[in-house]
Amino acid sequence: MASVGTIVWLSSELMFFAGLFAIYFTLRSVRPDLWEAGTSHLNVPFAFANTTILVISSVWCQFGVAAAERGQGSRTGRLFEFKKWGMREWFVLTYLFGSVFVAGQIMEYAELASHGLTLSASAYTSAFYITTGFHGIHVIGGLLAFLFIIGRSFTTRRYTHRQATGAIVVSYYWHFVDVVWIALFAVIYILQ
Q1: How far apart are CA 3 and CA 171, in angstroms?
Q2: What are the UniProt keywords, alphabetically (predicted)?
């Protein structure tokens, strides 16, 4: 039931982000001059590197899910024996990569603001900050969910299917956030 509920909820989130994409496509068709001026200030290589970090975090997340499904909540070997890592270690690594992604977004905002591209500078910058900002809020929500699942892994001696369900549901959300960012990256940074 938790998986089905999460998928239904993510479907509503998909509609929310579809509305944000509509803002971009409308802006591009109505005011191409704003679009051109706004995209000229974007640091595409930095954004690509930041996107790569988020995509890699989804890989780590999936390794954590595989460990959770095996009933392995924590590592059974030494710290650098990656094959013996449990859900906790993979989710900590996912959390760290997700945090680096958020820090990268903040750095990008600071860089754009230093060039006068603030939220209220133009319709383009408003659309940029609203879409990437809402995505950032969703990433932070995912990071909090990872902390919850990691913390819960310390409270159980035996990692069961019930705990694994929590890890799986969080992975659905994280992969959703990842896919939405890939689409945002394509629309914001590639369609110049």
Answers
A1: 10
A2: Cell membrane, Membrane, Translocase, Transmembrane, Transmembrane helix
pLDDT in tens, the chain (192 residues): 677 887 888 888 889 999 999 998 898 889 888 888 888 899 999 999 999 999 999 999 999 999 998 888 777 888 888 888 889 999 999 999 999 999 999 999 999 999 999 999 899 999 999 999 999 999 999 999 999 999 988 887 777 777 788 899 999 999 999 999 999 999 999 986
Tokens in use for 176?
A: 């959703």
What CA–CA distance (Å, rounded) separates 87 from 71?
9
CA distance 6 to 127: 27
Tokens of 107: 């750095």
CATH fit for domain 2-190, picks 1.20.120.80, 1.20.58.1120, 3.10.450.10, 2.40.128.110: 1.20.120.80
Domain spans of the chain, in order of start: 2-190
Vertex 169, ends 142 and 172: CA angle to 5°? 70
What are 56's two structure tokens? 């890699």
Farthest-apart Cα atoms in the chain, separation: 60
Strands (E), 28-77: none
- Work out the angle at residue 64's Cα, subtended by the Cα atoms of residues 59 and 69, and round it to the nearest 5 degrees: 125
* Contact (CB, 8 A) for 179 and 16: no
- How far is 14 from 20, CA to CA, in rounded Å? 10
